[in-house]
Every structure is written in structure tokens, then in C-alpha cells.
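TOPIC: backbone geometry
CONTENTS: sequence, C-alpha cells:
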Amino acid sequence: MYKLVLVRHGESVWNKENRFTGWTDVDLSPTGVEEAREAGQTLNNEGFRFEIAYTSYLKRAIKTLYIIQEEMDLLWIPVKKTWRLNEKHYGELQGMNKSEMAARYGEEQVHIWRRSYDVPPAPLSKDDPRNPAFDPRYKDLSPEQIPLTESLKETVERIVPYWKDEISHDLVKYGSVLVAAHGNSLRGIIKYLKNIPENEIVSLNLPTGIPYVFEFDDNLTLIRDYFIGDPEKIKEMMEKVANQGKAK
């Protein structure tokens, strides 16, 4: 049996402030650090072991992974970082407060920005200092690979090939893989693995810092998937994510 463990990064500073984050490289909040620590302790107590891990180019995911590794005494294992695991790019919305946007434009519009499958937010201008093209970590990407905004559909399209070409091969090689990334990049993987329709994946709300386990047979056919943790706490955290786009 093969086991894939997905962990959405712990609460970030902008999660706490209810801001659209996207590719903005914000840090973990103190709560996020504790969530990552608890995730590592949970995985350790459940007997999980890893020889390879993946994360994005963004510090909230990198630090989450590092803390999990530290709790599991696995700082020595190799880590593969990729921009393809970055969060969905929210274009001009990055940095904006979700509740304030809901009050200004209506909850329905914010829901479209957050949860529509193929409608991206308004893009950044090319000369906007937030354009990833100005960030040295993306210097090796082609102009076509650097987004100024993204829909969930486009996020899925950049992560699924990476799953097929990289992550799934390491899963077969090592037997288990840990991925610490973001709500939308992980939803892209989940959509593919569970064959979730476009109109249903938009309703999946991933809680921060909760390990999500996928078990596969020898043919990489999905057997079952489950969160590790208190069901009531997980339900509460999912509802909190769902309510972020409502006006206060």
C-alpha cells in the first residue's frame, strides 16, 4: 500500500487577517506554527515515516513542512520545492480583505472570485511590483508560466502534470510521500485523485494544518482517503474557511 499525505500550510498572517494571499510570500502566524507542530506530532504518533517531501516556493508552506519534519525527526530527508505547488494566483485581489470585498461587491461576487472553477480575478498589470516576474525565485520560468492571475482550472492544469511526472513516481519509489502546500494547489491534486467534478471541487474547503491521507493499492488506484484528527474540530475549521468570503 502507498500513502500520500497532503497538508495545507498552517494559518498564515494573512489568513488571520482574512486577506487574499495567492503568490504573496507571507509568513505563518503563531497559530499556524502551532498547527504545523501539531500536524507533525500527529503524524509521528500515527507511525508515519517519509523519505521524501514536497512543498512550494512560498515560506508559509516551506515552514510548515520544516516544522513537521522537525517534530518527526526527519529534517534529514530530501525536499523538492516547486512553483507548481504554489497557491492559486489571485491577481489584483492579493492583499485585499475578503470581508471588505464582500461588503463592497457582494458575497456572491467574492464567492465567484474564491470558488468559481474557471473565472479568474482581474490580473495584475505587467509592471505591478507584485508580478512574480520580478521575483528571483521565478527567474527560470518562461513568460507563459508566470501568472498574473489564475482560475482554479489553471491551477489544476499546472499541478496535475507534476503529480503524474514527479510526485506519483516518488510515491511508488518510496512508498509514502508528504506534501505541504496550499488550499488550491492541493485541491487540484485531490480533484484529479478522486475524479471530483468541476462543480463539486469548488465546495471543498481544506482546513489548515490537518493531515489528509490518501491510500493506494499497487496500481495506484485510490482505496480510501481521510483526515487525521478530531472530526468536530476539522468540521469547524472547514466551516471557518467557507465563511471567509462573507461580509461582517
